[in-house]
């Protein structure tokens, strides 16, 4: 059963203007996500897509960001599709709400990245 849906869109060019870009990456992304971003040669579309996915997951939980961005990890499944792994406060919120699964989809082009997340009970 669907609990809620979250969606987010990020303008890729906004990332170009972030001061202390490396600190931003370390604050927002887990080590596994950073490895993937590095494999993708720090493509801004990839970074924007992963960031949009984290925001979409937070919206699907109906809480907004009341936890660390690193509490939401976007992973690549066996088929290459993104999947969500939660930690700490985000994981606890899901348990409190009875959410058993979160499905996420990410898409991007040169100027924007968009992600949608569906929280399921």
Automatic annotation (TrEMBL):
<keyword id="KW-0444">Lipid biosynthesis</keyword>
<feature type="binding site">
    <location>
        <position position="8"/>
    </location>
    <ligand>
        <name>Mg(2+)</name>
    </ligand>
</feature>
<dbReference type="Pfam" id="PF01648">
    <property type="entry name" value="ACPS"/>
</dbReference>
<comment type="similarity">
    <text>Belongs to the P-Pant transferase superfamily. Gsp/Sfp/HetI/AcpT family.</text>
</comment>
<feature type="binding site">
    <location>
        <position position="55"/>
    </location>
    <ligand>
        <name>Mg(2+)</name>
    </ligand>
</feature>
<keyword id="KW-0479">Metal-binding</keyword>
<dbReference type="InterPro" id="IPR002582">
    <property type="entry name" value="ACPS"/>
</dbReference>
<dbReference type="InterPro" id="IPR050559">
    <property type="entry name" value="P-Pant_transferase_sf"/>
</dbReference>
<comment type="similarity">
    <text>Belongs to the P-Pant transferase superfamily. AcpS family.</text>
</comment>
<keyword id="KW-0275">Fatty acid biosynthesis</keyword>
<dbReference type="InterPro" id="IPR004568">
    <property type="entry name" value="Ppantetheine-prot_Trfase_dom"/>
</dbReference>
<dbReference type="GO" id="GO:0008897">
    <property type="term" value="F:holo-[acyl-carrier-protein] synthase activity"/>
</dbReference>
<comment type="function">
    <text>Transfers the 4'-phosphopantetheine moiety from coenzyme A to a Ser of acyl-carrier-protein.</text>
</comment>
<dbReference type="InterPro" id="IPR008278">
    <property type="entry name" value="4-PPantetheinyl_Trfase_dom"/>
</dbReference>
<keyword id="KW-0276">Fatty acid metabolism</keyword>
<feature type="domain" description="4'-phosphopantetheinyl transferase">
    <location>
        <begin position="5"/>
        <end position="106"/>
    </location>
</feature>
<keyword id="KW-0443">Lipid metabolism</keyword>
<dbReference type="InterPro" id="IPR037143">
    <property type="entry name" value="4-PPantetheinyl_Trfase_dom_sf"/>
</dbReference>
<keyword id="KW-0808">Transferase</keyword>
<keyword id="KW-0963">Cytoplasm</keyword>
<protein>
    <recommendedName>
        <fullName>Holo-[acyl-carrier-protein] synthase</fullName>
        <ecNumber>2.7.8.7</ecNumber>
    </recommendedName>
</protein>
<keyword id="KW-0460">Magnesium</keyword>
